[in-house]
Amino acid sequence: MDRHYSEEITAATIADAHEKDLKIQSKYGVKFMTYWFDEARCTAFCLIDAPNKQAIQDAHDEAHGMIPHEIIDVDPKVVSSFLGRLGDPSPQTDIDTPAIIGTAFRAIMFTDLLDSTKMNTEHGDSKALHLLHINNAFTRNALRDHQGSEVKHTGDGIMASFTSVTNAINCALDIQKSFRDHNLNSPTESLYLRIGLSAGEPIEEGGDLFGNSVQQAARLCDYAEPENILVTQVVRDLYRDKPLTFSDLGDISFKGFDEKTRVYSIKLKN
Fold first, then answer.
1. Does the pLDDT at position 98 exceed 60?
2. CATH dotted code for 106-266
């Protein structure tokens, strides 16, 4: 995957560049699979099957001269999990209607079930497995309702990706509501979840796909109190829906980050 940045970049210029890439790709033994474009952040990301990075640069150079700023190796399965596709989207209505190319910016969610390792001791293996299934069902139902994509199951939680920060927060709220209702109806089988949300572009410092965003969301999840949702500044700023109260927890130092992270908390209303 490569990254292009330009303050003059537009959807039209990127679409034209992609078409030019497709016309000469066989000459360099590469396949330009698809791309994502974020007008607000002036960035485009191309997914390419290529023998090496030089072939990508040479093909881009001949096709349109837009040399990528960064190129990283990625696992197609991971790309599909985070970004939802490995090829160009189909036209919306007919062959004369261009496909809608979305942004690669994603909100990342981590959930974690509190004291899941103790459930076998407290409830027995069969009951503990049943409670884990409830945990998974609440989260997956909310992901489906809010267009979230499950990236992986962590054993006692789920990592997920969203194209919309608003959907991510509303999903987190619905998950916690489901757990609260379950605990009210089944107090002897109470389950408590914590959730962390971050957001970012796919190629970040260090060359890992969503590396910084994933680590931030995981650290927030670990730091959160039960029944709580913690989010970063960018997630708070991009939320566009019903009014919510974000409690400012200040700047917090997390392992693996040189700079402190501004953290906000969201709690369910009674």
1. no
2. 3.30.70.1230
Write the burial class of residue 125 (CB in 10 Å: 0-12 exposed, 13-18 middle, 19+ buried). exposed
- Mean pLDDT is highest, among 82-86, 97-101, 168-172, for 168-172
Tokens at 157, concatenated: 């939680």
CA distances from 55 to 28, 60, 61, 80, 261 (A): 6, 9, 10, 23, 38
- pLDDT tens-digit readout, 261-270: 999 999 877 6
The Cα–Cα gap between 145 and 142 comes to 5
The model's pTM is: 0.90
Domain boundaries, the chain: 2-83, 106-266
Look-up of token digits 């500044």: 233
Q: Does 6 have pLDDT greater than 60?
A: yes
Give CA separation, 12 vs 9, 41, 100, 118, in Å. Answer: 8, 16, 12, 55
Sorted by sequence, the CB contacts under 8 Å of residue 183 that are 6+ apart come out as 190, 191, 192
Half-sphere exposure of 171 (CA within 13 A, CB side): 32
| CATH architecture group of domain 2-83 | 2-Layer Sandwich (3.30)
CB within 8 Å of 170: residues ≥ 6 apart: 146, 241
How many residues are given for the chain? 270
Mean per-residue pLDDT of the chain? 90
**Sign (positive/negative) of CA torsion 60, 62, 64, 65?**
positive
CB of 264 closer than 8 Å to CB of 199: no
